[in-house]
Design brief:
253 residues, alpha/beta, Rossmann fold, nine-stranded mixed sheet, two-stranded antiparallel ribbon, 11 strands
């Protein structure tokens, strides 16, 4: 099997590309799924690759399929703006595979004359309340745009890893404007709160309307899990310091 893309007949014209693959805190994937759900975007392309993990996915009906990356399409009725959201089950397992998939996505963007690529994901930090959004871009003009949106620009040389980082690098020789938005996350569990922070920036950046009701429910559920994790971490710290906690460390499911 070779890496292949299966495309529908839809032919995007100057779309905005949004990439959100699984990563830290599943931030990118959650953002992508919320956009797809809210805009009712339709799947128009699928990538299968031997670079993806070697397993089959079984759905709730017992039907199996290979891991994949998917492209979803939406066009605004108001101003004919076109958006393609890219997400999937996984990222490639090797550096060569990361390059191959990132290059394939950027070739697709070039083929359809994309006007902007937006890469979304997470970065690890001990968040307090509101998740900060960190960003970077391929030009000073886009960096200034991020500043106006309240995004903290990454000036410390921190690498953006995986397909996301490679897409940023591969955008430059193609002269495709690109930027990334990374939500602050603890990284242990899916983090809808970090995803919401990224979505709030995207709404202003792209001038689109999104429904936040679903992600608000997810935030409430995950807050309880994060609280349990914090309790376990505190007990582990006490144990490492040779102190006995009054609480009992339990199993988190």
């Amino acid at each position: 099997m070779k890496t292949m893309m299966i495309e529908a007949k839809t032919k995007p014209n100057e779309p905005i590309i949004i990439e959100g693959l699984p990563g830290l805190g599943s931030v990118g994937r959650i953002v992508a799924q919320e956009i797809i759900r809210s805009l009712k975007a339709k799947r128009i392309a699928t990538i299968y690759s031997p670079q993806f993990p070697y397993y089959a996915i079984v759905d709730k009906h017992g039907v199996v399929r290979l891991p994949r990356n998917e492209f979803y399409y939406w066009r605004s009725k108001r101003n004919r703006k076109e958006i393609i959201v890219i997400t999937g089950d996984c990222q490639p397992q090797s550096s060569a595979g990361q390059y191959e998939i990132a290059d394939m996505i950027m070739d697709y963007a070039t083929k359809h004359s994309a006007r902007l690529a937006v890469i979304v994901g997470g970065y690890t930090s001990k968040r307090k309340k509101e998740a900060t959004v960190v960003g970077a871009a391929t030009s000073p003009e886009l960096v200034k745009r991020l500043n106006r949106l309240g995004v903290v620009v990454n000036k410390a040389g921190i690498p953006v890893v995986g397909v996301s980082g490679l897409m940023l690098g591969l955008a430059q020789p193609r002269e495709l404007p690109a930027l990334c938005l990374l939500g602050e996350t603890i990284g242990y569990v899916p983090d809808p709160r970090a995803a919401k922070s990224v979505l709030k920036v995207l709404v202003r950046l792209l001038d689109i309307d999104l429904d936040f009701a679903g992600i608000e429910d997810d935030i409430t559920k995950m807050a309880k899990i994060e609280s349990k994790i914090q309790e376990v971490e505190e007990d582990m710290d006490l144990a490492l310091k040779g102190k006995v906690s009054e609480k009992t460390v339990g199993y988190i499911s």
